[in-house]
Amino acid sequence: MYYLKSRYYDPEVCRFINADKFASTGQGILGCNMYAYCLNNPVNNIDLTGKKSDIFTKIVLKLLMALSQCINASLDANELTTTRNTLINDQNGTTGHNYRFGLASASWSACEAIAIHNAKVRLGIDSTLSSTIQDCLKYAGVFAGLGGSNPLKLGMVLDAEGIDYSVVGLEDLNTPGVYVISYWTKAPLLSSIHTVTVEYDGETFTTYNRYGDDKEYYDSPLESISSGNYIIGYMLGG
Questions:
Q1: Which of 7, 115, 139, 204 is the most buried (most CB within 10 A)?
Q2: Domain layout of the chain by residue ranges
């Protein structure tokens, strides 16, 4: 749930939970939906005034998004900075500060993209962070990247990349495999959402980019994440 000054937005249903004060924005049928945001297309549209999505802002947004992707692509084209088939654990370090996630810094909003990228690397699937960010923004991005990715829509990202998966609960993580899991860092709805890659070989858990401090962690998520904080998980290849 995101608080946007005057209304709460529920990313699960892609709607505000209360109506806009305008019965219509004059933008066709979608403009009459008092619960929608940016004509139901928050990836490509933006509403800075809280009244309606406008063409000028839409053009500027697309230019900024294109610039963001160019920055990421140039980093992955450079052998000194590329993330190709490389595990990322430093979201709060060099990688997170160099890459962009739409209008936001990757250090702020790219944990879902990093988690999917890391999972692909562990499965031996060719991957770069720039291409994974692009898919996350397209299929699961919230507010042009400012709100990160919707964890409940990561299945659409995996579908687009041709990766088989199954949705799993916290209790299912004791099966050997590679997982992408999302959880509340503290109290649900009152804290941030973090998404990580977890690998279990039958004996040891390894969590990638848990704190973004360039380290891997080996404690069990079954012990460190409560069932109340767990949001959703995907077992890749399952």
A1: 115
A2: 1-53, 67-160, 165-236
